[in-house]
Specification:
Helices cover 40% and strands 25% of the residues. By secondary structure, the protein is α+β, with helices and mostly antiparallel strands. Strands 1, 2, 3, 4, 5, 6, 7, 8 and 9 form a nine-stranded antiparallel sheet that branches. A hairpin with a 3-residue loop joins β2 and β3. α2 runs antiparallel to α3 and α7 (238-256) crosses α9 (273-284). The two termini are 39 Å apart.
Length: 302
């Protein structure tokens, strides 16, 4: 099996000597495990090639990656702490600023025939899957235990392959069937209805002011207890959730419209364009012009 290939295709060379580097952690011919690490001061674009008859799983821990697959006519933004499944083919990847650590598993399909028979069956049953080259989900709590076992398996050379193939069989189907396109606001399962109602309201209108007092009244708590309760349930605070929802809205607008940056900022609930710019850099490691350049790479002309 040919190894996963990473080719630098950025038209703007980095002014910093710090770049991404590729390290192989395990290579057994039909299974390769590696890690893509490094700190970027400026965004960098790479072409990622998964060999024919192979597939890959990426565990992204770092700034966002914008993926432009050769199949279809879409862009996928993969935020921090995400899992990405790739079918064979080539994908252009734009890596944002910051510290990247992307663990990759690439395997030959013949090593996992039941999984790939199932994948082919889903494609046959639903033509929408025929052009789906990438599927991604937040690495939420339901994936925590398999991911811990994945890391532990790398320290057991004699058992790494059966352990990893078992983990892949467990997590690839729900990733493949997921309809996640982009999400900076991953949520755990089983949230109380009052919290879910509030979350839906924020997602519908992230541009609203959303003071803590008003939010706490909606769920029947004091501001102090609501703040602690929300963070305990969701994993981050309510104010951060609102900012993440606004950032999602801004990114979707930047990718789908040619509206001026000032209009995108105000419509997304940011007080200033600088506030939006800083939020984008914090969450995805890119600024508005760099996000819009992804459309130019895809030829959408927006």
């Amino acid at each position: 099996m040919s190894a996963l290939e990473f080719l630098q295709v950025s038209s703007k060379p980095s002014l910093s000597p710090r770049q991404l580097r590729w390290e192989v952690l395990h290579d057994a011919g039909d299974l390769e495990v590696g890690v893509f690490v490094g700190t970027l001061d400026t965004p960098e674009t790479r072409s990622l090639s998964v060999p024919e008859g192979s597939a890959s799983l990426f565990w992204v821990d770092g700034p966002a990656i914008i993926l432009t697959p050769e199949l279809g006519n879409s862009i996928r933004i993969v935020p921090r702490s995400s899992l990405v499944f790739f079918r064979s083919g080539t994908v252009d990847a734009q890596f944002g600023r910051g510290l990247h650590s992307v663990t990759t598993l690439t395997w030959n399909e013949r090593m996992m025939p039941p999984l790939h028979r199932w994948l082919n069956a889903t494609i046959t049953a639903n033509p929408d899957f025929a052009t789906q080259q990438i599927a991604s989900v937040p690495a939420a709590r339901q994936y925590a235990e398999p991911l811990v076992r994945l890391r532990e398996a790398l320290n057991q050379p004699k058992l790494v392959e059966p352990i990893l193939f078992g983990i892949l069989s467990q997590i690839i189907p729900p990733i493949w069937m997921s309809k996640e396109e982009f999400q900076l606001t991953p949520l755990p399962e089983g949230l109380p209805d009052t919290i879910l109602d509030l979350i839906r309201s924020v997602k519908r209108q992230p541009e609203a002011s959303w003071p803590l007092r008003d939010a706490s009244l909606m769920v029947g708590y004091s501001p102090f207890h609501f703040s602690r309760y929300f963070k305990q349930l969701v994993g981050y605070g309510f104010h951060e959730f609102v900012e993440r929802a606004r950032t999602e809205m801004a990114i979707q607008s930047l990718l789908s419209t040619a509206d001026p940056i000032e209009l995108v900022s105000s419509r997304s609930g940011f007080g200033t364009t600088q506030a939006m710019r800083e939020a984008l850099k914090d969450y995805v490691g890119l600024v508005p012009s760099e996000i819009r350049s992804s459309n130019e790479m895809l030829g959408l002309g927006i």
